[in-house]
Amino acid sequence: MLMFFCYGLQLALGHGARRLHVSAAYRAKVAMSRFEPTSFVNYEKLRSNVDIVQKRLNRPLTLSEKIVYGHLNDPHNQEIDRGRTYLRLHPDRVAMQDATAQMAMLQFISSGLPKVAVPSTIHCDHLIEAQTGGPKDLARAKEINQEVYNFLSSAGAKYGVGFWKPGSGIIHQIILENYAYPGVMLIGTDSHTPNGGGLGAICIGVGGADAVDVMAGIPWELKCPKVIGVKLTGTLSGWTSPKDVILKVAGILTVKGGTGAIVEYHGPGVDSISCTGMATICNMGAEIGATTSVFPYNHRMRTYLHKTGRGEIAALADEYANLLVPDEGCEYDQVIEINLDELKPHINGPFTPDYAHPVSQVGATAEEKGWPLEVKVGLIGSCTNSSYEDMGRAASVAKQALDKGLKCKAQFTVTPGSEQIRATIERDGYSKIFGDVGGIVLANACGPCIGQWDRRDVKKGEKNTIVTSFNRNFTARNDANPATHAFVTSPEIVTALAIAGTLNFNPETDYLTASNGEKFKLVPPTGDELPTKDFDPGQDTYQHPPSDGSSLKVDVNSQSNRLQLLEPFDKWSGNDLVDMQVLIKVKGKCTTDHISAAGPWLKFRGHLDNISNNMLIGAVNSENDAVNSIKNHLTGEYGGVPDVARHYKANGVSWVVVGDDNYGEGSSREHAALEPRHLGGRAIIVKSFARIHETNLKKQGLLPLTFSNPSDYDKIRPDDKISITGLQTFTPGKPFIAIVKHSDGSVDELELNHSFNETQIEWFQAGSALNRMKELTS
């Protein structure tokens, strides 16, 4: 493995590897800053694996190929074919946010293993609801979520997992500040884990069951990614920001254009982007379906490593720099070119993050489409845009308004990415500027970005517009109001629009009116890439696991409505799946937010039966264009999707879901796979899947299948019964035949494809990947 951390273990390095000894001064700084110290970094092992693969392939490699293939379990024999074969990998590290960590740790407990095999951390960032401001919201969250926090803290201590307490910050910012570095491979139970690509790392979002595999030391499977190259030329300047790069790319590739691929940025324009700016771009790569995104190692990353106390890692990265950039002459599966000199500020939305508009045009488009022009709330921060540079550039815009006697016309909220960012922007005066212009600084947490927002200024169903520096803007995601038109853009554009109070404002050309009646234009934002002084670490919020936690206990109250120990799913019966009822035929976009909503449902993420009461309640039923209203074909009555599914399960009726394109896009939440399995589902049949969700379904023993002919979706009726034949000869690459029985007595036979490999077929036969793990380890 590339990287080893101090876990009370002496681990052997590969032949000829160089140890990175951490100085006493650095250890002292680490202790003060709550970092988990890196004991040594093994780039030599990475180089050895890359050399083996390069000799086999006999061609130049992209950067992403070097890092991914450098983590192969068997570089000598692994079949490598981009877009086709499955790779067996050994990631260096696992990170879990608190909403997904509950189920991941419950699954790890079920595995019976005594301790995690790789360094792992839990980050408390999802369960803090934004109401009145940071301190009060944090205190309230600690009280309400005490049971869950205690569970995660004690489970972490017992099984060797570090625990970042509530208030520490958003998982991805913590990873960037502490754990990501060039060449590392990290998986995280959150779809925006690719944020770490801004520091030259391969960081991939996964479901909890994948995290369990890695924590158990089992080789982790990933379909060999294709590689999309984005060549950047020119230089960022003026109002154009790193966020505009990914907003532009999203408009080009759409929400599914990156599926099955790593997006690799390269070219002379890269050097004009800060390390945290590169992280912003990689973070939002999740919105195009990309496996992850990455930038090549450069001086901006070196500076960031030094500023965050990791100068010795930077020195080693300099020595092995040829490993951390693409080879000259490497080939990409697709190339996009963007000239940063010509790139203009963008704003994407509403309702989907790939609906791209130049800021100069969005006002006119809004008028044409009937979108509300008034900006009700501007929200900056989130894991995508909460760096020191982001806060500084936004503050520079706000300061101009203050100097002219203005405050924000819209409500304005600020979410720091970490305790370190919060403390530093408070010390350096940015927080005061935000407060003076009318803003509220929220807790160091996800907050409104994931729907943790107790919004009270508009009624549910009232059309309104909000602008954010977040990454997603699906229907009702931020505030549970399906009539909210949410747009994503850069923090500086959000700030300008919050001051102007309207979408119909272009800060590059339009004027504001000062308190004295004078007309003035905002000058382009400025902000230091990193603080002139060192970062202020703020409060200590990290709990390191003890060297031996075997004697510790993790209690889960059987009467709890928030936590529930897991029972194994049933094994495959050995027979075809016959006469399964169509539970719902979903119309249009169906993200994991539609399948398993967040917001108020986050509190049940550790209780499978309770969280299953939100299954598919946001999906549109093709029969009646309604949400959470489907026909129960046993009773003839209409009911909620979870209620009908429970009734079918209680009566021994298996069921299927039929869906449209890119089914399951968005969050990595595996609850969107666990819930259908728990409530009696057997298969999900769609036109196409998002990567993470398809894998999550496989992990839980479901059959994710796609129509060989996408138009066959139209042949399915809401009251059909579907049989899937050929399961006794289930083999990779061999399609199934679906027998579709219609209520009028007619029958259709449809071909269904799957992407299972041999190992994944074993998951299905065992009932789940966790069941199969137990079979292999018992």
From TrEMBL:
Give GO BP annotations, semicolon-separated: tricarboxylic acid cycle
Q: Mind listing the UniProt keywords for this protein, alphabetically?
A: 4Fe-4S, Iron, Iron-sulfur, Lyase, Metal-binding, Mitochondrion, Transit peptide, Tricarboxylic acid cycle
Q: Which domain of life is it from?
A: Eukaryota
Q: What are the residue boundaries of the Aconitase/3-isopropylmalate dehydratase large subunit alpha/beta/alpha domain, all occurrences included?
A: 65-501
- Cofactor: bound how, per the entry note? Binds 1 [4Fe-4S] cluster per subunit.
- Give me the stretches of Polar residues compositional bias: 540-551
Q: What is this protein for, i.e. what is its function? A: Catalyzes the isomerization of citrate to isocitrate via cis-aconitate.
Q: Return the protein name.
A: Aconitate hydratase, mitochondrial
Which lineage is the organism of this entry classified under, starting from the top rank?
Eukaryota, Metazoa, Chordata, Craniata, Vertebrata
